[in-house]
Write a structure and sequence with these properties.
five-stranded antiparallel beta sheet, 4 helices, globular, 381 residues, mainly beta
């Protein structure tokens, strides 16, 4: 199994960068209609010290076209030109200025690259002039493992506030000022549903999870059990709620039988019995999650990945799919939440970031070797 994801909860977070008030008119005439199958940029090669990737998180493009590839395994950020030539690496393993112990996410703020280390509870800013600034996030929030992201002049970060077997986690997100002080709670939602089996404990096979999307000044937050996304301002005010009609319902009991058989088939022979015991002890949910994840693009369109039991179940590694896994048909919602179409993702490609004209994500070959690709988007008016 590929282990490129970072923290246990960071899989649920997908970052973006549009400012909704400036995007609404353009979005009305720029509906995503297709993704070009041939990548316009590919980086990553096994055996090349600067292009060998492991556990890529939140890759993105800078305003000048440079591709930025954060690596949670190496705790470093690699920068490439728009043509794919290696430029430099930012950061390294450690606890000093410009170093990381758990690189969770990174994003652009103008010409500055910002990165979040949830274990050190700090934001590191790599300025274009080569200077490095470090801001420690202060306050009483115990867990910041969900994500960190730019929000207004400051940042958003949060994680599990409480949890335990037999119930769902409570997830809380806070707003932090530019000096790192805690400005207060923005939102709460529900996290994983946990249970105890005779052999181990953990999330249920069809556990819902929190999904968060961040754009400049706005937080998109959802419990993927239901097709509903709250759009929040940094002061905790709900700007609007987006809802949509998901696809036909699937029987949880029938889906669970199929998933357990698939999990047992994938398990090593000496673990097959315990694998079946573990998942058969799980409670059967009344309904499956409504979707796997969503990504908000730079024009405000919301790309939703429908839930597929054989791909997104926790029993089959669904926790390791930050962008819903490779391929799939994605539902496209307008900024107002109206379904405007569907788009097929390249079959070997998992999207992690969507701009106005490109999808940036990760592809895996049959040996789980990672490459970062940029695919162009076609939009219709």
């Amino acid at each position: 199994m590929n282990t490129r994801t970072g923290s246990f909860l960071a899989k649920c977070v997908l970052l973006g960068g549009f400012a909704f008030p400036h995007a609404q008119n353009a979005a009305a005439q720029s509906i995503p209609s297709a993704i070009l199958p041939s990548a316009r940029l590919t980086v990553g090669a096994e055996g090349d010290s600067v292009q060998e990737f492991d556990r890529v998180v939140t890759p993105f493009l800078m305003p000048d076209g440079r591709l930025v590839v954060p690596l949670s395994s190496a705790n470093t950020i690699r920068v490439f030109t728009a043509a794919g030539r290696f430029v430099n690496s930012l950061g390294r393993r450690g606890a000093g200025p410009g170093e990381f112990t758990r690189l969770s996410a990174a994003w652009p703020r103008g010409d500055t690259i910002e990165a979040f280390d949830h274990q050190l509870r700090r934001i590191t800013r790599f300025l274009p002039n080569g200077r490095v600034e470090v801001v420690t996030l202060r306050g009483t929030v115990r867990d910041l493992s969900l994500t960190g992201a730019a929000m207004g002049e400051g940042w958003m970060a949060g994680g599990v506030a409480s949890g335990g077997r037999g119930r769902r986690d409570s997830v809380v997100l806070h707003h932090f000022a530019r000096d790192g002080s805690d400005r207060g709670e923005i939102a709460r939602t529900l996290g994983f549903a946990r249970y105890q089996s005779p052999v181990m404990s953990g999330p249920e096979p069809f556990s819902p999870r929190p999904v968060v999307g961040v754009q400049r000044g706005l937080l998109y937050i959802a419990d993927n059990q239901t097709p509903s996304i709250r759009v929040m301002q940094s002061n905790g005010t709900v700007q609007r709620t987006i809802t949509w009609q998901p696809g036909p319902a699937i029987s949880p009991r029938e889906a669970l039988r199929t998933v357990i058989d698939a999990a047992v088939a994938k398990a090593p022979a000496n673990q097959a019995v315990n694998t079946r015991i573990r998942w058969e002890a799980a409670p059967v949910r009344e309904r499956l999650p409504a979707f796997s994840c969503f990504i908000v693009d730079d024009l405000g369109f919301i790309w939703v990945r429908p839930y597929e039991p054989l791909k997104h179940s926790m029993a089959l590694g669904g926790l390791m799919l930050p962008g819903g896994g490779p391929g799939g048909r994605w539902t496209i919602l307008s900024p107002a939440g109206v379904k405007v179409g569907e788009v097929d993702m390249p079959s070997d490609f998992e999207p992690l970031r969507i701009t106005s004209d490109a999808v940036i994500g990760v592809a895996l070959d049959e040996f789980d070797v990672e490459t970062v690709r940029v695919h162009s988007i076609q939009r219709r008016r």
